[in-house]
Amino acid sequence: MKRQLAEKNGREGETRAAFWLRARGWSILASRVRTPRGEIDLVAKRAGLIAFVEVKWRRNKADLDLAIDERRLARVAAAVECVAHDYATQGEDIRIDVILLAPGALPRHIANAWQP
């Protein structure tokens, strides 16, 4: 039951993050992209830039600071390696972003969160 609620909240967070990105001029190319090495929550594009976005939803604003860490970002980076060529054309930059969400808090967008 707890896992189902977490899954539901995660999907809600991804929907909100996609809406927030669209409002800021991004196009959403894909969501919930599954790869052999993990899942990418959103793939977004704006002005020659492709962002692979990890979305984290937490029950309260205080938990957002602990929502993302190097291990989680490394897993996303491994998944991106599997599919980056499917989304980015020659000359487009790619990066990994994070969007942190909690009830009553504005989304926190961390651009270029992964730099190995």
Assign an overall shape: globular
How many distinct helices? 2
Strand content: 25-35%
What is the CATH class designation? Answer: Alpha Beta
Can you tell me the number of structural domains? Answer: 1
- Level-2 CATH architecture: 3-Layer(aba) Sandwich
Q: Which structural category fits the helices and strands? A: alpha+beta
Rg to the nearest angstrom? Answer: 14 Å
Q: N-to-C terminal Cα separation, in Å?
A: 36 Å
State mean pLDDT (0 to 100 scale). Answer: 91
CATH topology: Trna Endonuclease, Chain: A, domain 1
| Fraction of helical residues | 25-40%
Low-confidence stretches: none
Counted beta strands: 5
**Main sheet?**
5 strands, mixed
Summarize the helix and strand pattern as letters.
Answer: HEEEHEE
Output the strand order for the largest sheet: 1-2-3-4-5
Q: What does the model show?
A:
Pfam families: UPF0102 (PF02021). Belongs to the UPF0102 family. This protein is of the alpha+beta class and 116 residues long. The protein has a single domain (2-110), classed as 3-Layer(aba) Sandwich (Trna Endonuclease, Chain: A, domain 1), CATH 3.40.1350. 34% of the residues lie in helices and 34% in strands. It has two helices and five strands; from the N terminus they run αβββαββ. It has helices at residues 2-23, 70-87, and strands at 27-35, 38-46, 49-57, 93-101, 108-110. Strand 3, helix 2 (70-87) and strand 4 form a beta-alpha-beta unit. The protein starts with a helix and ends in a 6-residue tail after the last strand. The model has no long low-confidence stretch (mean pLDDT 91).
